[in-house]
Amino acid sequence: MDEKFDASMTPGLRLRACKGCIGILCANFDGSTRGHVTSDATGTATYQDNNTYLSREFGYSHDVDLVWALLVDMSLLCTFMLQHTVMARPVIKGLYNKLSLSIVERSVYNLTASLALQLLIQHWVALRDPVWRINTVEHNACWWMFAISHGYCWATIYLGSLTMDLSELLGIKQVYYYLNGWDDPLTLKSSELQRLISHQRHPSFVSFFFIFWVHPYMSVDRLIMAVIMTLYMVCAWKVDDIDFEYQERQFKRKEIELSHVH
């Protein structure tokens, strides 16, 4: 995005450009009216609709064959889910152990997950037809409501990852501990926490569900993604009553510890 916030931009255009930046971070809340700010050689800024921009710059076509588009998108989603599922199987982890490469197992998992996600983003075929659409361009309060709620969900996921030991989740701590001659950091965690991690590797089901479904512009391709990813989370995340009770005990314990601080 090539923006120039110079004096030629009106206050309204600047506000729209800022909203566009936040909208990109929070999944583009303006639907088919999404756009970006460009500047020509004279420095004059203009707001351009993304559909027009994609058609001119990248050969994007609205006449994409529906069946082919669905096959491509579903194949990309299946690739992403297969990577997450297959590489987490005990047989794969056992193979790492046999090859004495268990310390890089988590790092390789994250690398391949990132590649699968990049593949999905790069080759995803957008189907612009809306299932539902809420006009957020003319209603700033509505736009901010979606932006703040999505921002809160992403913050919850990030902070939840921090509390679940982000460096271990990324595979960095395993390598660091190995270089220092220490045991695998996962083995140093309690059996209850290990059980929870095996059932839910990262948070948060509710936040992901909200991000997928609570959106002002639900296009056909987004609906497909929301349905498939929700079903995958339901099947893959197996948190039960024992895990819930463990988290509840830890939460109460932390409350008591914090109350003594003051």
UniProtKB/TrEMBL annotation:
Its main location: nucleus. Keywords: Membrane, Transmembrane, Transmembrane helix. Transmembrane segments: none annotated. One of its GO terms (cellular component) is nuclear inner membrane. It comes from the Eukaryota. PANTHER family: NURIM (PTHR31040). Belongs to the nurim family. This is Nuclear envelope membrane protein. It comes from Timema cristinae.
